[in-house]
Amino acid sequence: MAQYHYLNLFFLNLYLDLTKLLVYQQCRFSISLVLSTFTSSSSSLSLSLHIPSIIPLIIQTTASLLQHFSPLSIHPSSDSTMDSTVSAYSEKLREMSVLSLLCSCLYSQPLPNTFGQFEDMEVKSLDKRASGQAFEVILKSPTEPSPERPQTLALPPQKKEPSLGELQRRLEAAEERRKSQEKQVLKQLADKREREKEVLTKAQEVNNNYSKMTEEKLHHKMELIQENRMARLGALKQRLREKELHAAEVRKNKELHTDLSG
C-alpha cells in the first residue's frame, strides 16, 4: 500500500512540475491535457494494481507528455537559457528508463549525503546538472593561537656563603678522607708487597728443593760410579792374583819335572 501511495505522489509531483514549467514558458497547448492525463493515470491506479500493470501505464503517460512537451512549443519570446533548460529536461525524460522511475517510486527517501567533513575542510554540493557538479570547499578557521609566551625562568637562588665552622668541618672531613685514602693505598701496597714476598719465598723454596734434590741425585750417582769402579778394580786384582798363583804353580811343576828327569 505504501509503495502505490509513493507512486501516486511521484506522478503528482512530476505533473505539477511540468505544469509550472509550461505556465512559466507560456506554452500554447492547454494545461487541461496534462491534468486529464494525470487524472486518467491516477484513476487507473488502485490498491489491487500490481507492478507489471504499472509499467505500460508509465510508458504511455511519459510518451504522451513528451509528445506534447517539446522545445518547438515554447514561446519565441523566451530567453535562450530557459530553452536549453527545457531541452535538457525533455532529453532527460526521454533517456530515463522505467526501472529508474520504479526505483524512485519504491525508494522515495533521499540518499544520505556522501560529502563529509574532513579534518581541515568541509565540502558542500552547490549545484548538480547533466554537464557537471559544483562544489564548495570551506576551510576551517586556523587553530587557536598559541598561548602567551612563558615567562623567562627565574635564576636559582644564590647559595649562602658557608660559615667558618662549616668550612672547618669540611676541611676536617676532607683531611679524614685524605688520610683514609692514604691508609687504604698503604694497605694495598703492603698487601701487594706481602704477596710479592710470598711469591718470592715460594719460588726460593722451590729452587732450593730442586737444588737439593739435584745434589742428592748427583751424590747418589757418584757413589754408584765409585762403587762400580772399586768393584771392577777388585775383580781385576783378583784375576791378576789368580794368574800369578797359576804362573807360580806352573813354574813349580816345571821345576819338579826337571828334577825328576835330571
Walkthrough of the structure:
The chain has 262 residues and is mainly α. The chain has three domains: 2-109, no CATH class; 113-140, no CATH class; 181-262. The protein is built from six helices and two strands, in the order αααααββα. A two-stranded antiparallel ribbon has the order 1-2. 5% of the residues are buried. The model is unreliable at 1-5, 22-56 and 66-78 (pLDDT under 50).
The global form is elongated
Structural class: mainly alpha
Strand content: 5-15%
Structurally, how many domains make up the residues? 3
> Taking strands numbered 1, 2, ... along the chain, how are they ordered across the largest sheet?
1-2
Approximately how much helix is present in the residues?
A: 55-70%
Signal peptide: 1-21
Pfam families: Stathmin
Region (Disordered): 139-165
Organism: Carassius auratus
